[in-house]
UniProtKB/TrEMBL annotation:
The gene is recR. GO terms for molecular function: DNA binding; zinc ion binding. One of its GO terms (biological process) is DNA recombination. May play a role in DNA repair. It seems to be involved in an RecBC-independent recombinational process of DNA repair. It may act with RecF and RecO. This is Recombination protein RecR. NCBIfam families: recR. The lineage of its organism: Bacteria, Bacillati, Actinomycetota, Actinomycetes, Mycobacteriales. It comes from Corynebacterium anserum. Keywords: DNA damage, DNA recombination, DNA repair, Metal-binding, Zinc, Zinc-finger. Residues 79-196 form the Toprim domain. The keyword DNA damage applies. Belongs to the RecR family.
Length: 219
């Protein structure tokens, strides 16, 4: 055990997911030896994390602006929505280069024992996106109430459910499948096998995820 501020920093790093006591100690000692300007830049970056990050008003992805870069990209396929649990899952899918549609972040998965039900997730906004097509935000104009004043964009033709292949993710996929299946002309699909049961999408390699996209099945 160290004393004073150094031990305080070690304890704080050890609270982070995936960082054990030894890793926390190495990081803290590294910062102790760093140039003061580098440490100051690190402190400022942490400070901006709380105030400089927001969530896209369309897909709920982490964003620096009101609309994230993916929703604002006019080259993306506006008729496809890939539903993921967390924003980190989008980064994994984007690295495959397999998918060129848009996303919707639920903010978690259904977990009744953990107190997470449909109301705790961004499910209502997903249904609204499917039920009434949104305008192309890359060219849309908005009024004083931030409401679109252009004609709606193309309707959603497919929702791809890419929740984690574990108990909570499967329950969420089944719930969304039942919720969306009555929309006329809408295809609801689930990523195909190739992703191990009980795993997290975050740790799946790009090749496996690409094959899962290519072989997705209709619910």
């Amino acid at each position: 055990m160290f004393e004073g501020p150094l031990q305080d920093v070690i304890d704080e790093f050890a609270r982070l997911p995936g960082i054990g006591p030894k890793s926390a100690q190495r990081i803290a000692l590294h910062l102790l030896d760093e140039d003061p300007e580098d440490v100051k830049r690190f402190q400022e970056a942490l400070g901006r994390l709380q105030n400089g990050v927001t969530f896209c008003r369309i897909c709920r992805n982490i964003s620096q602006e009101d609309v994230c870069r993916i929703c604002a990209d006019s080259s993306r396929d506006k008729t496809l929505i890939c539903v993921v649990e967390e924003s980190k899952d989008i980064q994994v899918i984007e690295r495959t280069g397999e998918y060129r549609g848009r996303y919707h972040v639920l903010g978690g998965a259904l977990d009744p024992l953990g107190g997470v039900g449909p109301k705790e997730l961004n499910i209502t906004s997903l249904v609204q996106r499917v039920g009434s097509a949104l305008p192309d935000v890359a060219t849309a104009e908005f009024d004083a109430n931030n409401e679109p004043i252009v004609e709606p964009g193309p309707e959603i033709t497919e929702v791809i459910i890419a929740t984690d292949p574990n108990t909570e993710g499967e329950a969420t996929a089944a719930y969304l499948g039942r919720l969306l299946r009555d929309f006329p002309g809408l295809k609801v699909s689930r990523l195909a096998s190739g992703i191990p049961m009980g795993g997290d999408l975050e740790f799946v390699d790009e090749l496996t995820l690409s094959r899962a996209f290519a072989g997705r099945t209709t619910l």
